[in-house]
Amino acid sequence: MDYLILVNKFEPIPPGWADNLKLRKAGGKLFEEKTAIALEKLLKEAKSDGIGIEVISGYRSDDYQQMLWEKEINRHMGCGMNYASAVAETGKTLALPGCSEHGTGLAADLGTSGADDIEPDFHKNAEGKWLSRKASKFGFILRYPRMKEHITGIDFEPWHYRYVGRRPAEIITESGICLEEFLHFYSNKYTLC
């Protein structure tokens, strides 16, 4: 399993990825097996620290991602945007099917206990702050950090965490870089994470 796989609108999920994906539940959602195990440990430690974290989203099929894409475009158009503007706005925080990290089983959208959808201010509450300090210990990174939008192509998403393995997560977090920068500078050393 390539835990450092880069997936975005320019680098879609490779054909056959889902054929080899072993899914397991964590927090009530499906994830790639090793990711689920790490997430279960993260959730357990958060709970023991008095932090309740809700898993909002995990693995998504292409069909489900397509439904989310169309729903978001329709929402924007319902607010008066034309189709092209709605597509552009949707693309700031949602990926097309085949281009979403959720299709890898390695990504989790996380929220406060009881939340049923993403929270734009998640980084300001106790749960978001706890994750920013502790997620790398479990192999997770904040995938779309603030001030990296020009590199990732996605707006700041304080709820979107991605499993990359412990050592790469520690380097990415400590260095204040994003996955794209890590892959550019460190990929040869950490390809076997």
Q: How is the secondary structure organized here?
A:
Blueprint: E1 23-26, E2 29-32, H1 33-48, E3 53-57, H2 62-78, H3 83-90, E4 107-112, H4 126-134, E5 140-144, H5 149-152, E6 157-163, H6 166-175, H7 179-186
Antiparallel strand pairs: 1-2, 3-4, 4-6, 5-6
Helix pairs in contact: 2-3
Domain D-alanyl-D-alanine carboxypeptidase-like core: 32-165
Keywords: Carboxypeptidase, Hydrolase, Protease
GO molecular function, one term: carboxypeptidase activity
Describe the structure.
The chain is α+β, with helices and mostly antiparallel strands and 193 residues long. Among the domains are: 34-53 and 106-113 and 121-187, Muramoyl-pentapeptide Carboxypeptidase, domain 2, CATH 3.30.1380; 61-99, no CATH class. The chain is 37% helix and 16% strand. The chain is built from seven helices and six strands, in the order ββαβααβαβαβαα. The strands form two sheets. The protein has a four-stranded antiparallel β-sheet. Strands 1-2 form a two-stranded antiparallel sheet. α2 crosses α3. The longest helix has 17 residues, at 62-78.
List key phrases describing it:
single chain; 193 residues; two-stranded antiparallel sheet; 6 strands
Structure summary:
Among the domains are: 34-53 and 106-113 and 121-187, Muramoyl-pentapeptide Carboxypeptidase, domain 2; 61-99, no CATH class. Helices cover 37% and strands 16% of the residues. The protein has seven helices and six strands; from the N terminus they run ββαβααβαβαβαα.
